Amino acid sequence: MTALRLASPVPGVVRPLSAVPDPVFAEQMVGPGVAVEPDRTGRQDVLAPCDGVVGALHPHAFALELDDGRGVLVHVGIDTVTLAGLGFDVHVERGQRVRAGERVLSWSPVDVAAAGLSTVCPVIALQADPAAVTAVVADGEHVAAGQALLAWSPAP
């Protein structure tokens, strides 16, 4: 089985999880991954990083359930739950199957930053063995939405 490629949900600059201002992500409590500091554009789509079924769904975050039992979390900004959905649009429903690159949410990183919140977007391989997840772009590199970010090897 080949490694699963997880794509960037937003355009921006790749950052290590340790740079995320939230210990749940920074200390990899929910799993390994990387973060993307999004380009500061007015409205921006947030894309599915891989194929899967929408599990958890909030205006500021979503999780995809993969056919092989793995899960992927995309969190849009930090502490954005405090915005109670303001400025976020949800384009899918829980239980819906999505394809990599399909629009799931849209938001404004400019508005989130203006509210004094971090706009960084962690992409997490939920409960994965950190040794199975490899970044395919270097810290500080700019990625386009839909560009490969991580390779997640299947369990042996």
What would your notes on this structure say?
With 156 residues, this protein is mostly beta strands. The protein has one domain (4-152): Glucose Permease (Domain IIA) (Distorted Sandwich). It contains two helices and 14 strands. It has helices at residues 23-26, 109-114, and strands at 4-7, 12-16, 33-38, 44-47, 52-58, 61-65, 71-75, 89-90, 97-98, 103-107, 121-125, 133-135, 142-143, 148-152. The longest helix has 6 residues, at 109-114. The termini are close together. The mean pLDDT is 96.
Give the key terms:
Glucose Permease (Domain IIA); eight-stranded antiparallel β-sheet; 6% helix; globular; PTS_EIIA_1_perm; sugar transport; Dup_hybrid_motif; transport
**Helix segment tally:** 2
The overall number of domains is 1
Cα-to-Cα separation, first versus last residue: 9 Å
Give the overall average pLDDT: 96
Q: In total, how many beta strands?
A: 14
Percent in helix: under 10%
Query: In which order are the strands of the major sheet placed?
Result: 9-5-6-7-11-3-2-13
The CATH architecture can be named as Distorted Sandwich
Strand content: 35-45%
Poorly predicted parts: none
By secondary-structure content and strand pairing, the structural class works out as: mainly beta
State the order of secondary-structure elements, H for helix, E for strand. Answer: EEHEEEEEEEEHEEEE
Largest sheet: 8 strands, antiparallel
CATH homologous superfamily?
A: Glucose Permease (Domain IIA)
Name the shape in a single word. Answer: globular
What is the CATH level 1 assignment?
Mainly Beta
In the CATH hierarchy, the third-tier topology is known as: Glucose Permease (Domain IIA)
| Rounded Rg | 14 Å
